Amino acid sequence: MSKAALNQKIFDSDIEKISMRDGYGEGLLEAGKKNPDVVSLTADLKQSTRVDPFAEKFPDRFFECGVAEQNMIGIAAGLALGGKIPFTSSFAVFTPGRTWDQIRVSICYSKLNVKIVGSHAGITVGGDGATHEALEDIALARVLPNIGVVVPCDYIEARKSTVYAAEHEGPLYLRLARGKTSVITTERTPFKFGQAEIFKEGKDVTIIACGPLVYYSLLAAKDLEKEGLNIQVINNHTIKPIDKLAIAKAAKETGAIVTVEEHQIAGGLGGAVAEVLAESYPVSMERIGVKDSFGESGKPSELLEKYGMSVEDIKEAVKAVLKRKQK
User: At CA 146, angle to CA 99 and CA 38, rounded to 5?
Assistant: First the structure.
């Protein structure tokens, strides 16, 4: 685990915001230029998942599968058996949601080299409502044998993780948010599969976050400095294999953990971190995420506040865990 170089404008009001799916589209095109075996599949969501530049550049390596997500996974499995590196893209509620059985049997069981990209994940899909807000996909993916799970924190990390995915041997799930999110990393910020990164040093409490809420965690830590609290923030982009050493080290150094994710607290990042702590170094812990509930339609900021994932909620979780911190 290393300390990362972040965007110098991270706390400015005019920080640049770009969609993670744009990072995916750019990363896929870059990977395709590097390796002619990279192919792209989608289920009638070419523009929404930003694979249209790849389709235009490599029309003979792009497969439009229509509204048939399960069939798309089967086609991807066949392409992988033929030596290709398929990237399947859809909304996360459809894949891995609707395609879980096909991913389990056709991809993971045989350790096929297929990359599953779930876009529009989390409650910040907003107006699309409960049926399209994937809040269980990390849990669905990480429970399967042989698959890696990556949740980028911004546009740049989404691009880097996509390029890496083409080089990774075996199944991998990449989770993307829909809307524009703050660009908090730079080209110099490390991205290494399976390795968490310290985004802010601290000694009182460690916040371990993934996805767009890494930015919210940094804002919360900045606010808490005004109250005399020194908070460590870790970007845990790889949910599986999770960085057990980094988590145990953080627990030993700060003695309290808060996990932050735009996902159900059951089975996601919070569950994974709790498992590590229970087996290595138990400390007081709070989990920020959706608490056994479906979402609803609304503006992303309103939904994050209603479901307890705002900056203020993160700050309250830090204070709560401090009260229980072992002396």
Answer: 70
Same domain as 95, residue 108: yes
pLDDT in tens, 120-167: 999 999 999 999 999 999 999 999 999 999 999 999 999 999 999 999
Dihedrals phi, psi of 211, to nearest 5 degrees: 70, -160
Residue 9 amino acid letter: K
Say whether 169 is catalytic: no
- What is the domain count for the chain? 2
CA distance 19 to 3: 24
Buried b (16+ CB within 10 A) or exposed e, 273-299: bbebbeeeeebbbbbbbbeeeebeebe
Q: Is there a contact between 116 and 126 (Cβ–Cβ < 8 Å)?
A: no
Question: Within its chain, how far is the Cα of 324 from the centroid?
Answer: 29
Strand-pair category, 38-42 with 85-91: parallel
Q: Report CA 187 to chain centroid distance, whole Å.
A: 18
* Cβ partners under 8 Å of residue 320, min gap 6: 286
Task: Find residue 172's DSSP bridge partners.
Answer: 115, 148
What is the spatial distance between Cα 161 and Cα 256, in angstroms, rounded to a whole number?
29
Q: Return the residue matching tokens 């992988």.
A: 80
- Nearest CA to 173 among 144, 131, 135, 196? 144
| Same-domain pairing of 117 and 53 | yes
Q: What is the pLDDT of residue 5?
A: 82
Angle 165-213-136 (CA atoms, 0-180°, nearest 5)? 65
Which tokens sit at 1? 């685990």
Structural domain ending residue among the three candidates 182, 209, 241: 182
Range of the domain at 231: 2-12+190-324
Instruction: Tell me if residue 116 falls in helix, strand or coil.
Output: strand
- C-alpha dist (Å) from residue 196 to 146, 240, 243: 20, 11, 6
- Catalytic residue (choose from 16, 64, 69, 312): 69
Instruction: Report pTM.
Output: 0.96
The CATH number covering residue 165 comes to 3.40.50.970
